[in-house]
Amino acid sequence: MARFKIIFDGEEQDEVFATEEEAEDYALYLCSCCRTGAETLHWSNPGDYDYDEDEFEDPEYEIVEED
């Protein structure tokens, strides 16, 4: 049975998923967390943490099949 892992922003995540769809959902959740974190940092100190929603790029991720 195939198992899937995520390489998120260059780092392999510990979580293992039974389907590729579950891994994709989790990767999208992580992207959402990055966006929310960037917004929160900007709200707390806009001078130090610039944030433009239109220019924000989600981190790259890859879903790989584990042996």
Major sheet strand order: 2-1-3
| Helix-residue proportion | 25-40%
Overall geometry: elongated
Number of helices: 1
Average pLDDT figure: 89
Outline:
The chain is 37% helix and 21% strand. It is α+β, with helices and mostly antiparallel strands and 67 residues long.
List keywords for this structure.
single chain; 67 residues; alpha+beta; three-stranded antiparallel sheet; 37% helix; 21% strand
Explain what you see.
The protein is α+β, with helices and mostly antiparallel strands and 67 residues long. The protein has one domain. It is 37% helix and 21% strand. It has a three-stranded antiparallel beta sheet with strand order 2-1-3, with helices on one face. The longest helix is centred in the middle third of the chain and has 25 residues. The radius of gyration is 15 Å and the shape is elongated. The relative contact order is 0.27.
Question: What topology does this entry show?
Answer:
Elements: E1 3-8, E2 11-12, H1 20-44, E3 61-66
Antiparallel strand pairs: 1-2, 1-3
